[in-house]
């Protein structure tokens, strides 16, 4: 077999990227890939063989930590080194940019693939979905304002582990009505972002100061009301006990588990006790 050529992913590759990720039912939309490209224009990769896109991988960099995701190779070409070639290209690119830690959420079947490349185990992440019910929102929660974003990104950094201002800016622009913030006497307590599509809503990032479970509930029920959907899904760390309790109450179903892994230094680990919903499995 001729070797696949690993190159930058362009806007023209997005349909091919979706055709590949649809094979695994990952649910990526065009808007998702456009957002990933906008956040890291030179950090998303495609593997091409005989003029056809046969593999995809994205990276999103915050400070000196990057998240890697949407890693997939055409089923008939797996086990031939294409996945490793894309990972090598991505890790070379990130190292050259000064990234010291790379994280990802691995599907359980892919853990050995990442371990061979030097990734180490951190903790499990669980994806849930279900009908949110209607509980009504609360007055302490309000839509985000552009003037909040700088302080919000600094506050979020304490839990996420790095400053993701660029992502928060983009989400405030894309989904202003479902990007909500909770404050008490002017101090940030938490925030939530809903990304509605049809009758369903993907939730995250969703970050709340530990010990403030009522704030998490208020944010959740208010965003569900604002989104007007009958189905929601999100992924969060199994290390957040208050979150596990909340999904039990909601009677949500577990869709699958992934394992958060790290390569390089252990910096920018964040605090899972404050994380209720990831910004996305592929971007942390
Ligand atoms: C995971 C995936 C991207 C790997 O790509 P690939 O092109 O098949 O992998 P490669 O051929 O480059 O394999 C590199 C090495 O990892 C090993 N490997 C690959 N997949 C493996 C697996 N599932 N279990 C154990 N080892 C695996 C290979 O044997 C090879 O080992 P070697 O270097 O000792 O020869 C690909 O199998 C895939 O698309 N899977 C379905 C989607 C998926 O689960 N993606 C991961 C999301 S987190």
CATH topology of the largest domain: Aminopeptidase
**For the report, how would you describe the main beta sheet?**
13 strands, mixed
How far is the N terminus from the C terminus? 35 Å
Strand content: 25-35%
Structural class: alpha+beta
Your description of this structure?
This protein is of the alpha+beta class and 284 residues long. The protein folds into two domains: 5-99, Aminopeptidase, CATH 3.40.630; 128-277, Aminopeptidase. The chain has helices at 14-22, 30-39, 82-96, 111-116, 149-160, 165-174, 213-227, 241-250; strands at 5-8, 45-49, 52-62, 65-73, 101-107, 120-130, 141-143, 179-184, 187-197, 200-208, 231-237, 253-264, 275-277. The radius of gyration is 19 Å and the shape is globular. The model has no long low-confidence stretch (mean pLDDT 96). Coenzyme A binds next to β4, α3, β5 and α4.
